[in-house]
C-alpha cells in the first residue's frame, strides 16, 4: 500500500522525508512538495502518514492486488498518548473507528539517564547481572537463573 | 568528488544499526561505561527504524517468572524443538534469564502492556507472548537510546567495518556515507556492536510490480548485519536456516494472535482439517523425536513451525487449496473482533488496507492464508547469524572465548539478527542481547584489549573510493547512451536486486520451486552469484539514494552467498516447510546433529565450512 501525497495539503516541510525508514519520501524539485519516489520499496508502515502535520499523506493499496476505493486513515497524538484509526471498506459497508493508547506516561519523562545513576560495583561487574537486576527481573528476593541453581548442564550430542 | 570525509575519533563503543538490538546496546552501555564515548550510526531515523518501525501488538518473548509462569530453561526447550534441535542453548538460556527485566523496564518507560484483569499478570496471547499497545514501541526505546548515547548519527549507511592494522582480526570502527549529504563518515572505535538487520528481499517475493515492497520483514532489512560481519571475516552459523512464514495472503498480516488468543484455526478449501493427515508421512522424514503427535499431551511440546508449514504447502500442492483461517466463529464476539483489527493496525497496517480494499470482513468470511518467500534473519523463529561467544557461567569451551556475544573478530559484537543460533528472541530478546553485548564490550575495553588500535589513511581512502564507485561508474558511462536504463557498462541497483531474487528463488529453494533445491541447483546458483558479484563492481548509481540501494544490494549479495554455501553444506532436510534438499529428503541426526559454521576469507572470497557441536541442556 504505497503512500502518495495530496498536492493541495503538502507544504513541503519535509517531516516525512526525515522519518521514512526506507528513504523513499523525497521533495520533488519542481512542485517543491513531497512524493514517494520508490513505491515498490514502501512497507506501508505509516510512519510518514503519522508524522505529517497537514494530513497530506495517504495510502492507496498496492496496484498488484488491492482494488481501489478503500481508506485507512490515522491520527497519532503524543500529548494525549493515543492513536486513532478509521477503516472504510470499498463497498461502504464497514466504517470502523479504533483507538489505542501509545503510552501510559508523559512522553519520554520516565526513562532514566544512566549517566546519573550510581555506578555499578565491582561485584556487579564481575557478575552476570545487567542494570537494575536482579530487582527488575523478578520483583522478589530471587536472583538470576543459573544452570547450577536449576540443576542443569550442557551436554553434547543427541539425546532426545 | 566533492564529498567531505568526516571523522569521528576516540569512540569507545560504536553501535551500528539502532533497531531493538542497537537501542538496547546503546542504553545499557552507558551504565557500564559512564565516561565512555558511545555513538550510534543508524541508516534511517532512530525514531522509526528497524523491524519494529511501524509498531508491534505483542512482545513475543517474556518468561513471566515474576508471575510464576516460565523459567528460562523452559524457553530453551521450546525454541529447541521449534528449530528441530538446532540452536545455541547457552545463548538462548542467557537471553531468556534476562529478558523479563527488559520488559519490566519498558513498562516503566510508558509502553502500554495489557493486564489480565483477573490475575493482574500481563495479558498472555500464548505461553511466551504478551499483548501490548505497541504503536510507539520504537519511539519509546529510541528515547532510551538517545538518553544514553553521546551522539546519534541518523541517515548513515554503514558499508564496511574498519580493521585494526596493528593486530590481525581486530575491529577498529566502521565507515559509510550520509544518505542525505553524501558525505563520507569514518567512525574510529575500540569496540563495535553490529545490530543491523536481517535480510528481506533476497528471495523473489510473491508480490510483483508496485507491490514488491509488501514483504513480511521490512524492505529496509537489507542483510547488513550479515554483509558487514561476513565482509570483516567473522564466522557465521546456521545461515541455511532461512524462514518461511504462514501468513494472511498478500498482506502478510500476523497470525499469532489469531491462533493463540482469538482461537481461530485453519482448514483447507473444502472446509476440512488437513494438518494431521500429513503427520505420518512427515514422521518418516524427520523421525519420532521431532514429530510425535501421540505424546503431545504428555510432553507439551509444540509442533515445530516448519512442519506445520509443510502440511500447508503439501495440502495446497495436493489441489485442496486455498487454506483458510477460520475467523467467522471468533469474530462474532465484538471484543475479539476489535482485537483482530487492532492486531493489524499495531504492526501490519497493510493487511487492514487490503481487507478494506477487498471487502474482507472476517466476521462473514474466512480469509486466505499462504506461505511467504524465505527470509534470512536471526531474531524471529530462525537462527541465522554470527558465531558468537556465550556467557562465562553457561557456555561449554567450544562456545566461549572471553566476551559474551563477541564474534570471532576481536572487539566485534553482535545483537539481534546479527547473533546466530538464537531464535525466538524477537523484539524484547534483541533488546536484551544488545544489553548483554554492551556490558561485555565495556569489559573488553576496560580489560585493555582495545589498546593501540591503528587505522591508516590508506585503509580509509581505499574504502572511500569503493563506497562512491557506483556514482563514479554511472557518471562515466551514462552519456554513452541516449536515455533510459539499459546500458552495456552498468546495471542499476534495482536490476541487480531483481537478478539476485530470481536466482535465489530458482536455485536456493524459493517459492517458484516450492522451496526445493539440491546440490546441482546450488552449484549453479553459486556460479551465478559469482557473475553477479563481478557485475556489482559495475553498479551504476544515479544519485545518493541509489547509492544506498547499491550498498544494500551488496550486503544482500554477501548474505545470499553464505546462505547458498550453508545450504550446500548441510546434506539433509532439517526443516521441511522451510526448504527441502531434494537429494537428501530426510532429517539425518547421525551426521547432521551439528551447527554449521562458515567463514569467508575477506582477501580471497573463499569459503570454508565446518561442523560445530550442538550442546543441549540435560532432560527434555
Automatic annotation (TrEMBL), chain A:
It comes from the Bacteria. Residues 1-30, 33-62 form the 4Fe-4S ferredoxin-type domain. GO terms for molecular function: 4 iron, 4 sulfur cluster binding; adenylyl-sulfate reductase activity; metal ion binding. Coiled coil: none annotated. Its EC number is 1.8.99.2. Keywords: 4Fe-4S, Iron, Iron-sulfur, Metal-binding, Oxidoreductase. This is Adenylyl-sulfate reductase subunit beta. It comes from Caldichromatium japonicum.
Automatic annotation (TrEMBL), chain B:
Coiled coil: none annotated. Its EC number is 1.8.99.2. It is an enzyme of class 1 (oxidoreductase). InterPro entries: AprA, FAD-dep_OxRdtase_2_FAD-bd, FAD/NAD-bd_sf, Fum_R/Succ_DH_flav-like_C_sf, Fum_Rdtase/Succ_DH_flav-like_C, SdhA/FrdA/AprA, Succ_DH/fumarate_Rdtase_cat_sf. GO terms for cellular component: plasma membrane. Pathway: Carbohydrate metabolism; tricarboxylic acid cycle. Keywords: Flavoprotein, Oxidoreductase. Residues 499-613 form the Fumarate reductase/succinate dehydrogenase flavoprotein-like C-terminal domain. The active site is at 301 (proton acceptor). Residues 12-241 form the FAD-dependent oxidoreductase 2 FAD-binding domain. Its cofactor is FAD. GO terms for molecular function: adenylyl-sulfate reductase activity; electron transfer activity; flavin adenine dinucleotide binding; succinate dehydrogenase activity. GO terms for biological process: anaerobic respiration. Transmembrane segments: none annotated. PANTHER family: SUCCINATE DEHYDROGENASE 2 FLAVOPROTEIN SUBUNIT (PTHR11632), SUCCINATE DEHYDROGENASE [UBIQUINONE] FLAVOPROTEIN SUBUNIT, MITOCHONDRIAL (PTHR11632:SF51). NCBIfam families: aprA. This is Adenylyl-sulfate reductase subunit alpha. It comes from Caldichromatium japonicum. The lineage of its organism: Bacteria, Pseudomonadati, Pseudomonadota, Gammaproteobacteria, Chromatiales.
Amino acid at each position: 500500500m504505497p503512500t502518495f501525497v495530496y498536492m493541495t495539503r503538502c507544504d513541503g516541510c519535509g517531516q516525512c522525508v526525515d522519518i521514512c525508514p526506507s528513504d523513499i519520501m523525497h521533495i520533488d524539485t519542481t512542485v517543491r512538495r513531497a512524493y514517494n519516489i520508490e513505491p515498490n520499496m514502501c512497507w506501508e508502515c505509516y510512519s510518514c502518514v503519522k508524522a505529517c502535520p497537514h494530513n497530506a499523506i495517504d495510502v492507496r493499496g498496492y496496484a498488484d492486488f488491492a482494488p481501489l476505493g478503500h481508506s485507512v486513515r490515522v491520527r497519532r497524538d503524543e500529548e494525549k498518548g493515543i492513536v486513532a484509526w478509521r477503516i472504510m471498506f470499498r463497498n461502504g459497508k464497514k466504517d470502523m473507528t479504533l483507538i489505542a493508547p501509545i503510552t501510559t506516561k508523559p512522553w519520554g519523562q520516565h526513562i532514566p539517564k544512566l549517566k546519573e545513576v550510581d555506578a555499578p560495583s565491582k561485584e556487579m561487574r564481575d557478575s552476570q547481572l545487567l542494570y537494575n537486576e536482579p530487582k527488575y527481573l523478578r520483583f522478589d528476593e530471587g536472583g538470576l537463573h543459573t544452570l547450577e541453581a536449576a540443576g542443569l548442564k550442557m551436554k553434547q550430542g543427541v539425546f532426545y | 568528488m566533492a564529498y567531505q570525509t568526516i571523522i569521528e575519533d576516540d569512540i569507545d563503543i560504536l553501535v551500528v544499526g539502532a533497531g531493538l538490538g542497537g537501542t538496547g546496546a546503546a542504553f545499557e552501555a552507558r551504565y557500564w561505561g559512564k565516561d565512555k564515548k558511545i555513538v550510534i550510526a543508524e541508516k534511517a531515523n532512530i525514531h522509526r527504524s528497524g523491524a519494529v518501525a511501524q509498531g508491534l501488538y505483542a512482545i513475543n518473548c517474556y518468561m513471566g517468572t515474576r508471575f510464576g509462569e516460565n523459567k528460562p530453561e523452559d524457553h530453551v526447550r521450546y525454541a529447541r524443538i521449534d528449530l528441530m534441535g538446532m540452536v545455541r542453548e547457552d545463548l538462548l538460556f542467557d537471553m531468556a534469564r534476562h529478558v523479563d527485566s527488559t520488559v519490566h523496564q519498558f513498562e516503566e518507560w510508558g509502553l502500554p502492556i495489557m493486564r489480565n484483569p483477573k490475575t493482574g499478570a500481563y495479558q498472555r496471547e500464548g505461553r511466551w507472548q504478551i499483548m501490548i499497545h505497541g504503536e510507539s514501541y520504537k519511539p519509546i526505546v529510541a528515547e532510551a537510546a538517545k538518553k544514553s548515547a553521546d551522539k546519534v548519527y541518523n541517515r548513515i549507511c554503514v558499508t564496511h567495518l574498519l580493521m585494526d592494522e596493528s593486530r590481525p582480526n581486530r575491529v577498529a570502527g566502521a565507515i559509510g556515507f550520509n544518505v542525505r549529504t553524501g558525505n563520507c563518515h569514518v567512525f574510529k572505535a575500540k569496540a563495535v556492536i553490529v545490530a543491523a538487520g536481517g535480510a528481506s528481499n533476497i528471495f523473489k517475493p510473491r508480490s510483483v510490480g508496485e507491490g514488491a515492497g509488501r514483504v513480511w520483514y521490512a524492505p529496509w532489512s537489507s542483510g547488513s548485519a550479515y554483509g558487514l560481519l561476513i565482509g570483516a571475516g567473522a564466522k557465521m552459523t546456521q545461515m541455511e536456516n532461512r524462514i518461511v512464514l504462514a501468513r494472511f495472503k498478500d498482506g502478510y498480516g500476523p497470525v499469532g494472535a489469531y491462533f493463540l488468543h482469538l482461537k481461530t484455526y485453519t482448514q483447507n478449501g473444502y472446509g476440512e482439517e488437513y494438518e494431521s493427515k500429513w503427520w505420518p508421512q512427515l514422521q518418516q522424514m524427520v523421525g519420532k523425536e521431532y514429530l510425535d503427535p501421540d505424546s503431545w499431551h504428555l510432553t507439551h511440546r509444540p509442533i515445530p513451525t516448519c512442519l506445520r508449514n509443510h502440511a500447508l504447502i503439501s495440502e495446497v500442492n495436493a489441489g485442496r487449496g486455498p487454506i483458510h483461517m477460520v475467523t467467522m466463529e471468533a469474530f462474532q464476539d465484538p471484543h475479539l473482533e476489535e482485537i483482530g483489527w487492532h492486531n493489524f493496525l499495531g504492526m501490519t497496517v497493510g493487511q487492514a488496507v487490503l481487507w478494506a480494499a477487498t471487502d474482507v470482513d472476517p466476521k462473514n468470511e474466512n480469509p486466505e492464508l499462504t506461505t511467504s518467500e524465505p527470509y534470512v534473519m536471526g531474531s524471529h523463529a530462525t537462527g541465522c547469524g554470527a558465531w558468537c561467544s556465550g556467557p562465562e557461567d553457561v557456555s561449554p569451551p567450544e562456545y566461549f572465548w572471553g566476551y559474551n556475544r563477541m564474534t570471532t573478530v576481536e572487539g566485534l559484537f553482535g545483537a539481534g539478527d546479527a547473533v546466530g543460533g538464537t531464535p525466538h528472541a524477537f523484539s524484547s530478546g534483541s533488546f536484551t542481547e544488545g544489553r548483554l553485548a554492551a556490558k561485555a564490550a565495556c569489559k573488553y575495553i576496560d580489560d585493555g584489549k582495545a589498546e593501540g588500535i591503528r587505522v591508516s589513511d590508506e585503509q580509509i581512502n581505499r574504502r572511500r573510493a569503493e563506497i562512491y564507485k557506483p556514482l563514479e561508474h554511472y557518471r562515466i558511462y551514462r552519456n554513452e547512451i541516449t536515455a533510459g536504463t539499459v546500458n552495456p557498462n552498468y546495471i542499476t541497483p534495482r536490476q541487480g536486486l531483481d537478478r539476485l531474487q530470481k536466482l535465489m528463488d530458482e536455485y536456493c529453494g524459493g517459492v517458484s520451486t516450492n522451496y526445493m533445491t539440491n546440490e546441482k541447483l546450488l552449484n549453479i546458483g553459486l556460479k551465478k552469484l559469482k557473475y553477479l558479484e563481478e557485475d556489482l563492481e559495475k553498479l551504476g548509481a544515479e544519485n545518493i539514494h541509489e547509492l544506498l540501494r547499491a550498498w544494500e544490494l551488496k550486503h544482500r549479495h554477501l548474505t545470499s552467498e553464505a546462505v547458498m554455501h550453508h545450504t550446500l553444506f548441510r546434506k539433509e532436510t532439517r526443516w521441511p516447510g522451510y526448504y527441502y534438499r531434494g537429494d537428501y529428503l530426510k532429517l539425518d541426526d547421525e551426521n547432521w546433529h551439528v551447527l554449521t559454521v562458515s567463514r569467508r576469507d575477506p582477501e580471497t572470497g573463499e569459503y570454508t565450512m565446518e561442523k560445530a557441536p550442538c550442546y543441549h541442556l540435560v532432560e527434555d
